[in-house]
């Protein structure tokens, strides 16, 4: 089973994440940041991942960042040697006036290019400017390439939600099993 559970305790936060890549899309998320909980629930549902997140801490910024660090580490651990996976995945997701494209490569190398084009300072109870940083943090700690492009949209809530739905779909495709061996002509990933 491709599962992992990890904890992170610092002077600022306490985070526990459990992840099952072969789940049913079920999520139990409680970070104390309602919009982050909402986004992570969409990631799980659309990615077919079972996800449990418990987090508390001093500041929303620290909690959100540490959640994404641990989530990335859980993804990396659950993938193991990344044998037999499809490796790459992408999705284009509409949400009302918004259209978002997300592409991932579970290459073993962390990189992100995220263009969400958010116009407000806050999206619900989360700093809007933090969203791109959180996605980068997830990609670096999960050791995968992540490209996000909001193609069109007006509503920042819709942009963020469509991004996490598309990320879930892209990860589901990339994590899917396609055979045996390492999906690389080099014979190794990273």
Notes on the structure:
The structure is a single chain. Helices cover 36% and strands 32% of the residues. It contains four helices and ten strands, in the order βββαβαβββββαβα. It has a four-stranded mixed β-sheet with strand order 1-2-4-3, with helices on one face. Strands 5-6-10-7 form a four-stranded mixed β-sheet, covered by helices on one side. The protein is globular, with a radius of gyration of 16 Å.
**Average pLDDT taken over every residue:** 95
CATH architecture: 2-Layer Sandwich
- What would the CATH topology be? Ribosomal Protein S5, domain 2
* CATH classification class: Alpha Beta
Distance, first to last CA: 22 Å
Q: What overall form do the CA principal axes indicate?
A: globular
- Major sheet: arrangement of strands: 1-2-4-3
Give me the Rg, rounded.
16 Å
Write down the secondary-structure element order.
EEEHEHEEEEEHEH
Count of separate DSSP helical elements: 4
Q: Superfamily at the CATH H level? A: Imidazole glycerol phosphate dehydratase, domain 1
| Helix content estimate | 25-40%
User: Total domains, how many?
Assistant: 1
**β-sheet strand percentage:** 25-35%
Largest sheet: 4 strands, mixed
Secondary-structure-derived class: alpha+beta
Using brief descriptors, characterize the structure shown.
190 residues, alpha+beta, Ribosomal Protein S5, domain 2, four-stranded mixed β-sheet, 4 helices
């Amino acid at each position: 089973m491709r599962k992992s559970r990890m904890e992170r305790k610092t002077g600022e936060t306490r985070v526990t994440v459990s992840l099952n890549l072969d789940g049913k899309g079920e999520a139990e998320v409680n970070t104390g940041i309602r919009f982050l909980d909402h986004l992570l629930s969409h990631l799980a549902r659309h990615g077919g991942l079972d996800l449990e997140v418990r987090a508390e801490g001093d500041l929303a910024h620290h909690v959100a960042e540490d959640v994404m660090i641990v989530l990335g580490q859980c993804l990396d651990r659950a993938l193991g040697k990344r044998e037999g996976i499809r490796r790459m995945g992408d999705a284009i997701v509409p949400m009302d006036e918004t259209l978002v494209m997300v592409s991932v490569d579970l290459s073993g190398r962390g990189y992100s290019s995220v263009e969400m084009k958010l116009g407000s300072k806050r999206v619900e109870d989360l700093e809007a400017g933090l969203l791109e940083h959180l996605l980068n943090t997830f990609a670096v700690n999960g050791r995968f390439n992540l490209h996000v492009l909001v193609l069109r949209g007006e509503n920042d809530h819709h942009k963020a939600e469509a991004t996490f739905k598309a990320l879930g779909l892209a990860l589901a495709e990339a994590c899917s099993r396609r055979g045996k061996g390492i999906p690389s002509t080099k014979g190794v990933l990273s």
